[in-house]
Design a protein that fits this description.
Blueprint (H helix, E strand, L loop, with lengths): L8 E4 L5 H12 L3 E6 L2 H11 L3 E4 L5 H11 L4 E4 L15 H29 L2 E6 L12 H20 L5 E8 L5 H14 L5 H12 L10 H12 L10 E4 L9
Parallel strand pairs: 1-2, 1-4, 2-3, 4-5, 5-6, 6-7
Length: about 260
């Protein structure tokens, strides 16, 4: 299926590895001119070379200077995928200090705001654009651990809907893709390391359904794949997603038990 992204310029933040790299890879395969972003030059250039990226942007989006540098490379971007972010340490309430809250909010929320404020005015002037936040189920179904991380996800979901209302009648949409637990390399390494003490089995075929059952119970019985999140982003990024506004598209195997 042709998602009609040819000729569109897309910035995917945090696309030097993992989920962001998968998103960049699929958008490029669908014809978009992708700007790959990261802070590690070697990894970022590696992904860019692999997918034939239009450009490489290096910068720390938690700073105004970094955001300016990335926006300059992105130029007249039609699609902004705010993927960059951090999990933070797996602290509970008594351990997560106010400074940790502030730092994670700066990285996960304000960085997205910086890129919105730099790129969306141009989309608005041209009468076409897509802004997609990568959120998560913990925004609406938080756990006791990582309260600071849960709260930043909720903020990302909330700002996306507020932005959608702001962009009414402009040709620019704002939406959220909300992944469940996704099988990036770091997740697979963690789960495999925990398997012996948890009794999940020895082979990955045994480990995955058992770990998913204990960590993220869902209707599919496994972890999601980066390409499945990328597919949702690609849909929203093109003309087939033009009538979707202020929405959260959950790609979590049914982890979140809700009708909204």
């Amino acid at each position: 299926m042709d998602l009609k992204l040819t000729g569109r310029r897309a910035l995917v933040t945090g696309s030097s590895s993992g989920l962001g790299a998968a998103i960049a890879r699929l958008l490029a395969a669908e014809g978009a001119d992708v700007v790959v972003h990261g802070r590690d030059e070697a990894r970022t250039h590696g992904v860019a070379g692999e997918i034939g990226a239009a450009a490489v942007a290096i910068g720390d989006l938690a700073t105004d200077q970094g955001a300016d540098a990335v926006a300059a490379v992105a130029g007249e971007a039609d699609i902004l995928v705010n993927n960059a972010g951090a999990y933070g340490h797996p602290h509970r309430w008594a351990e997560a200090t106010p400074d940790m809250w502030a730092l994670l909010y700066e990285i996960n929320v304000i960085s997205a705001v910086r890129m919105i404020q730099r790129l969306v005015p141009g989309m608005r002037e041209r009468g076409w654009g897509r802004v997609i936040q990568i959120g998560g189920g913990l925004a609406s179904q938080p756990m006791s651990e990582q309260p600071h991380y849960n709260a930043t996800l909720a903020a990302r979901h909330n700002l996306a809907v507020s932005l959608a209302r702001e962009l009414k009648d402009t040709g620019v949409t704002s939406n959220v893709v909300s992944p469940g637990a996704i099988l990036v390399d770091s997740v697979k390494e963690l789960v495999t390391a925990l398997a012996p003490e948890r009794g999940w089995g020895e082979s990955w075929e045994e480990i995955e359904p058992n770990a998913a059952r204990d960590f993220v119970p869902n209707d599919i019985g496994r972890f999601g794949r980066p390409e499945e999140i990328a597919g949702a982003v690609a849909y929203l990024a093109g003309p087939y997603g033009a009538y979707v506004s202020g929405a959260t598209l959950r790609v979590d195997g049914g982890t979140i038990r809700s009708v909204t």
